[in-house]
Amino acid sequence: MFLNLVGMNPLVRGITFRGKEGIFCAGADLKAIKSNLDGKPKKEDVIRFSIAAGKFFESINTLPQVTVMVIEGAAMAGGLGLACSGDFIITHKDTRFSLTETMIGLTPAQISPFVIQRLGFAKGKQLMLTAAQINGEEAVNIGLADFVGNKDSELDELEQKIKTQVLKCAPGAVAETKRLIGLIANIPREEMVFKAGESFAERVLG
User: Interior CA angle at 22 toward 16 and 28, to 5°?
Assistant: First the structure.
């Protein structure tokens, strides 16, 4: 997979995800999904497709490099989940964000962990259960996005600031810090103390 190759390349310090022609991502095309699954998919086929999507989001979330999401136009459903799988989110003030799955009888299944990770349970649940639409400025206010710009040139400037800061940091330390952050929600505090100690010692002695 391309992302795995990128993740293993020590020359790559960061990755920016940006949409095409002013649109970030409006989510999955259900008609295309059914067509790709021969029109009459079985439950097992849909499960496999969903799991593959979940692994894709996880592969972005666990990349050792810093990931920046530059959001313009719309980030809907899976597109919003994709944004949440990154480290930093830069948005245009007029971008539309919404988790629209419940409006069409679906669930934000594979993206929900990343939405909750970024927003917390209260705000994440609010967006998932209501399918409410918010703009870029509101996204920053609730912690969904990190930075907001009024025009494309401002988005470019914000991205460049992040790049400049990242390049001041040791890539190995960045990768290990991301790994430790990923452990925090998944292991007990007592175990985390020892994991953190091992990590710190390796960086000091390595």
Answer: 80
- pLDDT tens digits for range 79-138: 999 999 999 999 999 999 999 999 989 999 999 999 999 999 999 999 999 999 999 999
Residue 52: give its domain's CATH number: 3.90.226.10
Its sign, for the CA torsion 35, 38, 42, 43, is negative
Q: Hey, how many other C-beta atoms are within 10 angstroms of the C-beta on 61? A: 17
User: Which residues constitute the domain of residue 35?
Assistant: 2-166
Handedness of CA 121, 63, 54, 44 (dihedral sign): negative
Both tokens of residue 101? 């799955």
Identify which of 125, 163, 159 has the alpha carbon closest to the alpha carbon of residue 142.
125
14-18 and 147-149 as β-strands: parallel, antiparallel, unpaired? unpaired
- What gap in Å lies between CA 65 and CA 59, rounded to an integer? 11
The whole model's pTM is what? 0.90
Q: Do 106 and 21 sit in the same domain of this protein?
A: yes
DSSP 206: -
